[in-house]
Amino acid sequence: MANKRLKPRKLVVLGSGFGGYSLIRALRRSPLEVTVVSPRNYFLFTPLLPSAVSGSVEFRSILEPLRRRQRHAHLLEAAAEQVDFDARRVACCSAVGEECFEIEYDVLVLAVGAAVSNYGISGVERFALSLASVEDGRAMRRAVLERFAGADIPGLPLAEVERRLRFVVVGGGPTGVEVAAEIQDLLARELHKAFPALAPVARLVLLEAGERLLGSFDHALSEYTRRHFQREGIEVRTGSPVARIESSEIFFEDGRTLRYGLVIWAGGNAPVPLIADLGLPTASDGRVIVDRYLRVSTRANVYAVGDCAACGDPPLPATAQVAQQQGSYLAEVLRRKGELQPFGYKRRGMLAYIGGGKALADLPNTQWSGRTAWLFWRSVYLTKLVSPANKVKVLFDWIKARLFGRDLSRF
After folding, report:
1. Cα 258-223-371 angle, rounded to 5 deg
2. Which of 30, 85, 242, 266 is least crowded, fewest Cβ atoms below 10 Å from its Cβ?
């Protein structure tokens, strides 16, 4: 392997998501000079982000401060704007000011993740909320509470109250399903007490362009989710592709319309602007093509991991599980410990929370659902949290929400 003879001195990692963080963490005792370029100074445990929206966990409980947890790496709170591959320099702009600067690298790792795709549908960026960051989660939580406050105005016609309290989630994948489940939990467990006259009017609608929810899960689990949502009061509409979104109305391709108070967009992934501008070979979905060692073949000493990388044929899915394994593997590549095997993804299964204290577990050798799957879901995520501090905080958040309810403060 040609790269095995190279002994880099400066490693620059762009991004602090699952791929970048697992790489940085695995290089704790490495002789490399590690620099992380990220506009945020923390790692976000995104699988529990929908739970933070509903208030069953707190946002800070799922954040790992980079400067505290990974002291061996130098963090630059900035966004990478351009890469000069010939000069091996990255142009960056500060995330907390207007200063721009350049840094040099010997080895560069692209771990910038992905953006939420709007599929070219008009109105998505302007009128819909998405869930990809802490800022998104806080905005979504605040928006749900604002819709109830806005509907609690004396004299409003019933039709307008119903519109303001109609919450629509577009996208029946894991993110859309979990967001819908968590919001329904918030409606059923807390808001019906805070707004007893309005809660019975509130409705949650889940839209999916395909013919079933959770297309990547086992068919039986998908059907179980649909039936469970119907029992919980969530209206599921499959085969409902959206044509455009306006300020208070969704238009479907078949001509139907749906008035809403809040629309949440849980579409697929799209490349972030940096990846789109680098001129690297990309797959049909915009991800950078890498070889079996996660190298970008057209550029020396450049690697890509996580949601921005297309590895394998067909490419591996853009999931946290894939990104985490790629980051750990790449650390071994950079250490040059013996003759390495190509990256091999080990599928450990998929989990999804579907509300009402029930979950799905789609594992390589078995599938099950219900309360026991929910307990398994919680135990797995508690184990996967990086630091002991966050494990304790999340556990106490769950206990606190169970005993005292969820905080409904709007701030």
Report:
1. 110
2. 30
The whole-number pLDDT of residue 1 equals: 45
Residues 251 and 382 in one domain: yes
| Listed residue (113, 32, 106, 54) closest to 79, CA to CA | 113
Tell me the C-alpha distance between 122 and 56, whole Å. 33
Q: Do 114 and 269 meet the contact criterion of CB atoms below 8 Å apart?
A: yes
Residues 97 and 44 placed together within one structural domain of the fold: yes
Q: Give the percent of the chain with pLDDT over 70.
A: 97
Q: Name residue, tokens 């659902």.
A: 369
Domain C-terminal end among 335, 363, 379: 335
The reported pLDDT for the residue numbered 284 is 93
Please state, in angstroms and as integers, the Cα–Cα distance from residue 291 to each residue in 11, 120, 194, 252, following that order.
19, 30, 54, 40
Residue with tokens 């701030």: 411
- Per DSSP, the three-state class of 352 is strand
Q: 296-327 pLDDT, tens per residue? A: 989 999 999 999 999 999 999 999 999 999 99
Q: Are residues 278 and 264 in the same domain?
A: no
3-state secondary structure of 392: helix
Q: Average model confidence (pLDDT) for the chain?
A: 94
Distance CA 257, CA 245 (A): 10
| pTM listed for this prediction | 0.93
Question: Could you read off the pLDDT of 129-141 as tens digits, one per residue?
Answer: 999 999 999 999 9
Residues in contact with 226: Cβ distance below 8 Å, sequence separation at least 6, in sequence order? 212, 213, 236, 238
Compute the distance between CA of residue 286 and CA of residue 336 in angstroms, rounded to an integer. 30
Note whether residue 58 is domain-resident. yes
* Residue 7 pLDDT: 52
Closest CA to 114 of 278, 346, 269: 269
Question: Between the CA atoms of 398, 404, 408 and 409, what dihedral angle is there, to the nearest 10 degrees?
Answer: -100
Phi-psi region of 181 (alpha: psi -120 to 50; beta: other; left: phi over 0): alpha
User: What angle is formed at CA 353 by the lines to CA 347 and CA 356, rounded to 5 degrees?
Assistant: 155
Residue 261 shares a structural domain with residue 296: no
Give which of 205, 197, 184, 202 is closest to 147, Cα–Cα.
202
Last residue in a domain, options 335, 366, 390: 335
Domain-located, residue 250: yes
